[in-house]
Amino acid sequence: MEDKLINELRATYDAQLRGVTPPGGSARIERDGPLTRVVGWHRGFVTGPRDLGVYGTELDALIARQRDFYAARGEAVEWKTRAHDLPTDLTDRLAAAGFVAEDSETVLVGRSSDLAADPVLPDGVTLRQVAARPDLQRIAAMESAVWGEDWSWLADDLAARIENAPDNTVVLVAEAGTEVVCAAWLVFKDGIDFAGLWGGSTLKEWRGRGIYRAMVAHRAQLAAARGVPYLYVDASADSAPILNRLGLHAVTTTTPYVWSP
């Protein structure tokens, strides 16, 4: 029964979530054969259907075109792969073209009605929706602290998403006083049965207190209230077990292959 559910969820994911939402701002979406690529984000982005329908030297040429396109712009590019993609030698051919695999994540899908609950937060921690630039900059600073690298680009990225689709982008912060201790966002897509759970990073000293769980529960409430039946997330090794316990199901893994100038 569980295998049947996972297969159904994976098939629905493949049918509806292989494209890219128009990113807004100065970014734009282009097509090259079966691929969709984004130009104008903090780095390029390429994705495609489960089966590219391109093989051998033709696939090599398709890969090389993406690499050379972004090389001419002096930009890095991420090619998003999934473990069940076809052809099966796609990742080998990406590596041969100079793309480097980054950390894999688990793709989890769950029913919003099963996950929705009133958020339970530690004493002194509050949850609110934000859209103002100073709050987005505070989120970027928190993410930089969590990951130990410069995430200042995130403020511009979130601002563009909110400007482009204000009804479809919900950015949340958990705060202890004036400190952002966790941030997460929920992204809807018109005509799609899924809402995306993104962010969810928590400062190290605030982990293990149920804040991440509360963020998931509240975002599931919002999705269920809007009539969106599914939630999905690309989860790190730390987050995947938590999300699995909350009721999401692992349907595949995703690995970014990145080429840099």
Please tag this protein with its features.
twelve-stranded mixed β-sheet, 2 domains, single chain, globular, 261 residues, alpha+beta, Aminopeptidase, 12 strands
Topology:
Blueprint: H1 2-16, E1 28-32, E2 35-39, E3 44-47, H2 56-73, E4 77-82, H3 90-96, E5 100-101, E6 105-111, H4 112-115, E7 125-130, H5 133-147, H6 153-164, E8 169-176, E9 179-188, E10 194-202, H7 211-225, E11 230-235, H8 239-246, E12 249-259
Describe this structure in words.
The chain is α+β, with helices and mostly antiparallel strands. It folds into two domains: 2-108, no CATH class; 110-251, 3-Layer(aba) Sandwich (Aminopeptidase). It has eight helices and twelve strands. It has helices spanning 2-16, 56-73, 90-96, 112-115, 133-147, 153-164, 211-225, 239-246; strands at 28-32, 35-39, 44-47, 77-82, 100-101, 105-111, 125-130, 169-176, 179-188, 194-202, 230-235, 249-259. Strands 1, 2, 3, 4, 5, 6, 7, 8, 9, 10, 11 and 12 form a twelve-stranded mixed beta sheet that branches. The longest helix is centred in the N-terminal third of the chain and has 18 residues, at 56-73. The protein is globular and about 60 Å long. The model has no long low-confidence stretch (mean pLDDT 94).
